[in-house]
Amino acid sequence: MKSINLLLVLFISCFSLSAQHRGNYNEITQDISRQNILSSGNAQIYNPTVQQQIHQTLHPSNVLTVDVKALQNASATTYTAIFNVSQMGSSAEMTSQLMTARIDSIKQRLNAIGISQKNMAIDVISFIPIYEVEVTKKLFSKTYTEVPKGFELQQNIHIQFTKTSQFEAILSACAQSEIYNLVKVDYYIDNIQEVYKNLQDELLKLIDEKKAYYKALGFDMTTYNVAIADDKYCYFPKDFYQSYQAYNSTSVEALDKNKGVTTVKKQTSYYYQPLTYENYDVVIHPSILEPVVQIGMNIKLVFTPKPKEAKVTPVVETKIDHKYYVISPNGTIDVKELNTKK
């Protein structure tokens, strides 16, 4: 009996341990938001729901289709982090001085971690006065007047770096200079044309293999007309971040003690969900550790049989020359050719 109980406990423990690897994501598959957080941009919104493929009935046809797709995961050559800085002051001069002090502080800290000033750029966003309403009381009325009380200066700091390991130090340096608003991080690739050329070469190899396959099945490709369509695209990490919220937040202990349950705001978490590979024939650098730029190319060829040439039957004209023979009474024969054309 003890052995049975021990096996049961081990089974339950193993199940719990294996299930733990699923993470919070699988616990909320019914409530997870399937909407891409970036609804506009250079990437099309896609449906990540994987539908189970059922056996499909094949319909033979004499039209041949070659549809090949390739994808390459490319690490960025450089990154640009953009931080927003807002500074207020009692006067325009004071505001500008305070902003300059903060910018100089971040420059010094970034220089200490190996990022020089040539890798930084300042983008002035706005410099506007701040107004307050001043109330003037009169005998029978009140007057409300807007008067300037200060100024607000906003700037964006563009910081360029080449390694993702530098980003943590950049965040720390900005936080020490009281700069917390990270706007976005842009990814750049210097050799994108080489990536497209590499994808094109891989697709051409696949097309040759498909043609050889059809030839082995008995199709003569020289007797087909071909139509083509191709496409290429480039997706950046910001286009594929999705969000979810924690599934459980209610305290069971509070229910046991008949106490009121106070609900808390669930934290929204984000995770990187890149393009999956099930629809691609070739994937270059499929294993990724960090967000990457995904570059793809598609080529579709449709081969249709050439129409058979109709055989032309030659027309044979028979020309008859009409000749008449005139025999005289004395027995002589005279040949006469009459004009029968009208």
Strand line-up in the sheet with most strands: 6-10-1-9
- Count of domains: 2
Order of helices and strands: HEEHEEHEHEEHEEEEE
Distance between the termini: 124 Å
Number of strands: 12
Rg over alpha carbons: 40 Å
Which residue ranges are poorly predicted, with pLDDT under 50 across at least 5 consecutive positions? 6-50
Determine the strand fraction and express it as a percent band: 25-35%
Q: Tell me the number of helical segments per DSSP (H or I, 4 or more residues long).
A: 5
Give the overall shape, derived from the CA principal axes: elongated
Description:
- Residues about 5-50 have low confidence and may be disordered.
- The chain has two domains: about 1-45 and about 60-75 and about 190-305, no CATH class; about 80-190, Protein of unknown function (DUF541), domain 2 (Alpha-Beta Plaits).
- Strand 11 and strand 12 (about 335) form a beta hairpin.
- The chain contains five helices and twelve strands.
- It has helices at about 1-20, 90-110, 165-175, 190-215, 250-255; strands at about 65-75, 80-90, 120-135, 140-160, 180-190, 225-235, 240-245, 270, 280-285, 295-305, 325, 335.
- The termini are far apart.
- The strands form four sheets. The protein has a four-stranded mixed β-sheet with strand order 6-10-1-9, with helices on one face. The chain has a four-stranded antiparallel β-sheet with strand order 3-4-2-5, with helices on one face. Strands 7-8 form a two-stranded antiparallel ribbon.
- By secondary structure, it is an alpha+beta fold.
- The radius of gyration is 40 Å and the shape is elongated.
